[in-house]
């Protein structure tokens, strides 16, 4: 096989395994994301998986590649509308992409310093647009509080009750934060 | 062995296994809470465990018995102080009792309707004092929003970054919510 054919084959393997890794992380969590189980699901040999992605953290990274980052709301310049939009997109990602399970899986995987850094980087990046919006009104401890609170409007019902907030609850949260931030 | 001796032996077994179940739930999460692993950790036979607690959900219930409920702040009548007190006790429970891992374990275990009901009951009960305090100021969607937001001040940093908020962030969150609730 020539070099281009080899590259294409590696890229296809990588894409297949990454999709399967994301599927396993969503359905079974980090504990299910082993080389043996992933080899079964993706239809490749364990040897191939170990050769390209030696550690379980590599498998988590693959799953995150397949996810391609958290979706976000395109900002309009209206702070209230943009906060509601960002939380609505976040809620939709929990439903459509099972982002909640990815986040739980990352939390569960973070037993080494390298895995904790990966979790921190992914979550920091995911929260960034919300942080930028809130920084228009808040700073310091108040910014950290507002950021955790608005993230919590979506993550807490999901974590505690397997449920998601309706539109009225999201709007009420944004209004409480914005009127408390005056 | 007479009846009293038998009862005492069963109670001791139950207490031993419950403590071990909580320890396993905290250290390894729900996936580690199997009859085989718990039998090893608790020092009883698998047969004994299956005889008394046939399902994995029974093992989760045992762990929760050993936890004995979430600790709470005794209310003083000052709403701001009581909200800060309740969140501070919650933060301490995450540190001392690894309540975060119990909550993650419950979320992970909720793959059956019975397990989801158990999760909902435990979390509803845990949030109750915070809900009662916030109900002095909020109702409807605003109450749900405020409850998720203040729970999120502790759970979001823990879930996303393995970190906990400092006193200034907890106080800022309570102040934003109370001033937004006017």
Automatic annotation (TrEMBL), chains A, B:
Domain HTH tetR-type: 11-71
InterPro entries in UniProt: Homeodomain-like_sf, HTH_TetR, Tet_transcr_reg_TetR-rel_C_sf
Database matches in PROSITE patterns: HTH_TETR_2
Taxonomic superkingdom: Bacteria
DNA-binding span(s): 34-53
Keywords from the named record: DNA-binding
Name of the protein in question: TetR/AcrR family transcriptional regulator
């Amino acid at each position: 096989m020539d070099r281009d054919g080899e590259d294409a084959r590696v890229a296809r393997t990588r894409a297949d395994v990454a999709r399967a890794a994301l599927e396993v992380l969503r359905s079974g969590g980090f504990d299910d994301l082993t080389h043996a189980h992933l080899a079964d699901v993706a239809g490749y040999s364990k040897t191939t998986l170990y050769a390209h992605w030696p550690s379980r953290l590599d498998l988590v990274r693959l799953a995150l590649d397949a996810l391609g980052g958290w979706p976000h709301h395109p900002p309009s310049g209206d702070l209230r509308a943009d906060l509601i939009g960002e939380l609505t997109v976040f809620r939709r990602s929990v439903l459509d992409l099972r982002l909640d399970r990815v986040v739980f899986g990352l939390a569960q995987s973070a037993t080494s310093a390298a895995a904790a850094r990966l979790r921190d980087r992914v979550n920091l990046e995911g929260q960034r647009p919300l942080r930028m919006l809130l920084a228009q009104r808040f700073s310091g401890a108040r910014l950290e509080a507002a950021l955790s609170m608005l993230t919590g409007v979506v993550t807490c019902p999901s974590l505690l009750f397997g449920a998601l907030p309706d539109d009225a609850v999201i709007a009420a949260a944004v209004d409480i934060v914005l009127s408390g931030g005056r």
